[in-house]
Design a protein that fits this description.
The protein is of the alpha/beta class and 307 residues long. It is built from 11 helices and 11 strands. The protein is 36% helix and 19% strand. The chain has a single domain, classed as Inosine-uridine Nucleoside N-ribohydrolase, Chain A. It has a 9-stranded mixed sheet with strand order 3-2-1-4-5-6-11-9-10, sandwiched between helices. The chain has a two-stranded antiparallel sheet with strand order 7-8. It has helices at 14-24, 43-57, 104-114, 128-136, 165-169, 171-178, 189-192, 199-205, 213-229, 238-247, 294-306, and strands spanning 4-10, 29-36, 63-65, 119-123, 144-150, 184-187, 196-197, 235-236, 252-261, 272-275, 286-292. Helix 4 packs across helix 6 (171-178).
Length: 307
């Protein structure tokens, strides 16, 4: 089967690291490039983390720096939730590789055009780079096959009671993407909070012998401690689930809905308003994930480590 050509737009980030590991280990994905966006941490840190991860995983993919700040306001990162250096305390060898001398939005557009409509984008952070690409190149929507993004929710939030972090971090960018006409798949908190690892699952994953074992162990233990601080006993791999859903589409169940983002009211900033009942009678613009096959997700993680 022909590999899917993907750009991974990311802000590493602990679970971004696991997501990139999953993407690298699966031959169904051809990673055309890794674009970075300020989100979990500032631009310099997420870009250097991406370069270090590419070196560590021996990924044959260029890294391209993207937006340093959201559209319309300053960056409010989630650095406190990602540990020292942003990777849960994992210290990777410093990469001497340099980013491509190009902006992420230009790279996205040029790659989309060159692949003649076959490019899929997996967005794991705020959607700033994609919004900038759409604003600069209005015809981008004609060249992208689909965008799968980790973000949003039909109800709950994790940055505020109403908003998920990636959308909250740049709501205007998210709204631009929602209005783009590109086929969108939303992998939000409705499923990422259900596709979880418990103690038994984690111990089984750590049984496999592979070059990344110690790093995986550190990442999972960091996330486990973070979950315990929040009163939970399971680990969520938000971004890894988004990548897994591209590798294995039956993993998630979707429903097509009209969706929009709150960009004016600060109290509800970044809330994704999902018309599940079709009461607006507006044309659906997002495929919203509403259910996950958790055992299948865990199996994919196991296969990643075996591979």
């Amino acid at each position: 089967m022909k590999a899917l050509s993907v750009i991974i737009d990311t802000d590493p980030g602990v679970d971004d690291f696991v997501a990139l590991m999953l993407a690298k280990q699966n031959p169904q994905l051809k990673i055309e490039g890794i674009t970075t966006v300020a989100g979990n941490l500032g631009s310099d840190k997420v870009t250097q983390n991406a370069l270090n991860i590419v070196k560590f995983l021996e990924l044959e993919a260029p890294v391209i720096r993207g937006a340093r700040s959201p559209l319309g306001h300053s960056l409010e990162s989630a650095e406190a939730f990602h540990g020292e250096g942003g990777l849960g305390g994992v210290k990777l060898p410093q990469s001497n590789q340099k980013c491509i001398e190009q902006y992420a939005w230009d790279f996205i557009y040029e790659k989309a055009v060159s692949l003649k409509g076959e490019l899929e984008i997996i967005a794991l952070g705020p959607l700033t780079n994609l919004a900038k690409a759409l604003k600069k190149y209005p015809d981008l929507s004609q060249h992208v096959k689909t965008i799968t993004f980790m973000g949003g929710s039909t109800g709950r939030g994790n940055r505020t009671p109403f908003a998920e972090f990636n959308i909250w971090a740049d709501p205007l960018a998210a709204q631009i993407v929602f209005e783009s006409g590109i086929p969108l798949k939303m992998v939000g908190l409705d499923v990422t909070t259900k596709g979880v690892l418990n103690e038994t699952n984690m111990n089984k994953l750590l049984e496999y012998e592979h070059p990344y074992k110690e790093v995986v162990k550190q990442l999972l233990h960091f996330l486990q401690q973070l979950s315990k601080q929040m009163g939970k006993d399971t680990v969520m791999l938000h971004d890894a689930l988004a990548v897994a859903s591209v590798i294995c589409p039956p993993l998630l169940t979707y429903t097509a809905c009209y969706s929009e983002v709150e960009i004016h009211d600060e109290k509800y900033r970044g809330q994704t308003r999902i018309d599940l009942e079709h009461v607006t009678r507006k044309q659906p613009n997002v495929e919203v994930a509403i259910a996950v096959d958790t055992p299948r997700f865990i199996h994919l993680l196991e296969e990643m480590l075996k591979y």
